[in-house]
Amino acid sequence: MSGKLIFHIHTYGCQMNERDSELAAGLLLEQGHQQADNEQDADLIIVNTCSVRAKAEDKALGKLGLLLASRRQKPDLIVGVVGCMVQRMQQDLWRTLPGLDFALGPQHITRLPEVLQRVRCGEGPCLEIDECRPESRHQPHTGGKIAAFINILYGCNRRCSYCIVPRVRGPEFSRTAAEIIEEARGLLASGVRDITLLGQSVMSYGRSNPVWPLDHHSPRGFHEPLPRLLEALSALPRTARLRFTSGHPSGCTAELARAMAELPPVCEHLHLPLQSGSDRILKLMRRGYTSKEYRQAVRRLREALPDIAITTDIIVGFPGETAGDFAMTADFMAEMQFDNAFIFKYNPRPDTPAAAWPDDVPDEEKMQRNQLLLTAQNRHSLESNRCLVGRTLEVLVTGPSRRNAARWSGRTRTNKIVVFSPREHIQRGDLITVPIDSATAQALYGPQARVDPDADRNSGKEKS
Ligand code: 5AD
Ligand code: SF4
């Protein structure tokens, strides 16, 4: 079977999954298949799944159930599932979702063309879940993007007691700097202006396997693999913005702070999950830092980059979290004044150490704690955004605003959304400056945009 297919991909989960879906799409496009914006037009539908919380899995399972049922009207529809849930459920998938054509764990996305071929020759269903290093050399993108992701580090060697990721994404493995630089070159040539380097614990880049040749010379004298990579990527032509995510306090070294401060394309923005402000809970979570160490990491970054926006993740209702522990988290968040925070209710995940402990914070209490932190964070986000009113910020234009097509939106270097009135010649991907005249917790607003004459040079840090 070799006819061309129309495919559609549903994506749940994090930025890694977004990138994996794009990789899957890139591989299928290379084979001549076509991507459809909606599933009704598709004869191949892939669901890319997340296992981090049961809710994410339930959504994907619900979607897959509906797709398999829709085969009654469309018997030739091919349905596949990829991602973290495949690695977690393994053979159970066939029982839960009879009729599925293929299932690929997150390390096996690059095998999609070959597996699809097998399915179309009647050799399905196929399951690929062996633990292996992902094939990292050929990582196509789909094109037409302003902002893109590059995977630099697969898997995770940390052992946070609540987290399923090390189990489903395997041990850490870093791609070589040469591969990453090549991929970035291609993206920049295709018009990408904002590159985010991805890794579960991205600051561990190059710590478990060598990524630089021994004779590599860092012009600025960096010794650590990530600062060296940022330096090399910053030197590529047309690199406008660089980011990396997610961070860990132990990786916020003086050298990384220096790299962030000195290299113009590296944005003043870091996602640095805190999870809890209580040292007792941090220890039970096996996070590998205390609140004091987290504070020191933030101080180091803010000293080097006074404008840095720091965002975070928090888990409420971890086993044994008392009202006192929770109050410490709320106080710590007030002290840190994060630019944004994602708050999650603890959810026990199979085969994680914490799943063996009593899930003893009642759901109602988890909900209340979640709500309290959301309300507090809304206040902090509003305060941090209001501080930017009166300043003129560099904005990367992403296109007409979703809510009101007469206004356009873009992102600051700190990754905040800016909504503004466009001038005639504005285009997606332009770097402009926008004076900010008002703010909400969610966005910044500017009346007019001026085209930045320096936009195509490696622009400086955010201007005030
Ligand atoms: N329950 C709730 N939240 C979780 N996260 C990870 N595992 C769990 C879990 N078992 C959250 C963490 C992480 C984010 C991606 O998801 O805050 O940083
Ligand atoms: Fe991403 Fe973790 Fe969800 Fe996998 S389980 S998709 S790594 S958030």
Shape: globular
Q: What is the overall number of helices?
A: 13
Query: What is the strand arrangement across the widest sheet?
Result: 19-20-17-16-15-18-21
Q: Tell me the name of the CATH class of the domain at 143-267.
A: Alpha Beta
Explain what this protein looks like in three dimensions.
The protein is an alpha/beta fold and 464 residues long. Among the domains are: 6-128, Methylthiotransferase, N-terminal domain (Rossmann fold, 3-Layer(aba) Sandwich); 143-267, Transcription Regulator spoIIAA; 392-451, Nucleic acid-binding proteins (OB fold (Dihydrolipoamide Acetyltransferase, E2P), Beta Barrel), CATH 2.40.50.140. Helices cover 32% and strands 21% of the residues. It has 13 helices and 21 strands. It has helices spanning 15-30, 54-69, 84-89, 92-96, 112-120, 165-169, 177-189, 225-234, 254-262, 279-285, 291-304, 323-336, 363-386, and strands spanning 6-11, 34-35, 44-49, 78-83, 102-104, 126-128, 147-151, 153-154, 173-174, 194-198, 241-245, 269-271, 309-316, 340-345, 392-400, 408-412, 417-421, 431-435, 438-439, 443-448, 450-451. The strands form five sheets. A seven-stranded mixed beta sheet has the order 19-20-17-16-15-18-21. A six-stranded parallel beta sheet has the order 2-1-3-4-5-6, with helices on both faces. The structure holds 5'-deoxyadenosine and iron/sulfur cluster. 5'-deoxyadenosine (5AD) binds next to β13.
Brief overview:
Among the domains are: 123 residues, 3-Layer(aba) Sandwich (Rossmann fold), CATH 3.40.50; 125 residues, 2-Layer Sandwich (Transcription Regulator spoIIAA), CATH 3.30.750; 60 residues, Beta Barrel (OB fold (Dihydrolipoamide Acetyltransferase, E2P)), CATH 2.40.50. Helix content is 32%, strand content 21%.
